[in-house]
Amino acid sequence: MELTFKTEKKKTAWRYLLFLPKSLRLTALLSIIINALSVLILLIFFAGLQKEVPLFYSLPNDQQLVDKKFLFILPGLATLINAVHLLIARLEKEINYNVLKMFVEVTFLLQLLALVILLRIIIIIT
Predict the structure, then answer these.
(1) Angle at 82 (CA atoms; ends 33, 12), nearest 5 degrees
(2) Concatenated DSSP letters of 26-40
(3) Is the CB of residue 53 less than 8 Å from the CB of residue 125?
(4) In a 10 Å sphere around its CB, with 0-12 CB exposed, 13-18 middle and 19+ buried, how is residue 13 labelled?
(5) In this structure, are residues 100 and 83 in contact, taking their beta carbons and an 8 Å threshold?
(6) What is the pTM of this model?
(7) Is the alpha carbon torsion for 107, 109, 112, 116 positive or negative?
(8) What is the distance between the alpha carbons of residues 49 and 124, in angstroms, rounded to a whole number?
(9) Number of CB atoms found within 10 A of residue 74's CB
(10) Nearest 5°: phi and psi at 53?
C-alpha cells in the first residue's frame, strides 16, 4: 500500500508590512495610502492654485500668505513622520505591543490630520 500526501496550495495573499502584527497592518497601510493621497491631491490641484496661499492662519492677515510651493511642507512632513514611525517599528524587534499600537495609530491620525489641513486650504483657495 502506497501512502501519498496531498499538498495543499497556500493561499497567495498580498502580504504587506510583515514586520507588524496582523492587527496593526491595516492601520499602517491606511496611513501610507492617506499619505500618498495627500501628495496626489496636492499635485493635481497645484497648477490651478493662486501664486500665494494662506498657510499660517494664526498670523495677522498680511503674514498668512506664502508661495504655493510651501504647501508641499504638509505632505513632506507627513511622509517623514510616517517613515520614522514605521522605521522605529521595524528596527525595534522587542517593542511592547501597546507602544507599537500607539505608534501606528498616531501615525494614522497624523496622516489624516495633514490630509484634512491640506484639503481645507485647497477648498478655501478654490
Answers:
(1) 50
(2) HHHHHHHHHHHHHHH
(3) yes
(4) exposed
(5) no
(6) 0.79
(7) negative
(8) 11
(9) 19
(10) -125, 150
Distance CA 98, CA 83 (A): 19
Are the C-beta atoms of residues 82 and 93 closer than 8 Å to each other? no
29-40 pLDDT per residue, tens: 999 999 999 999
Q: Residue 53 is placed in which grid cell?
A: 496661499
Place of cell 517593542: 95
From residue 4, alpha-carbon distances to 1, 7, 72, 118 in Å are 10, 9, 61, 61
Instruction: Go through the chain and tell me how many residues it has.
Output: 126
Q: What is the pLDDT of residue 54?
A: 75
Cα–Cα dist 55/70, whole Å: 8
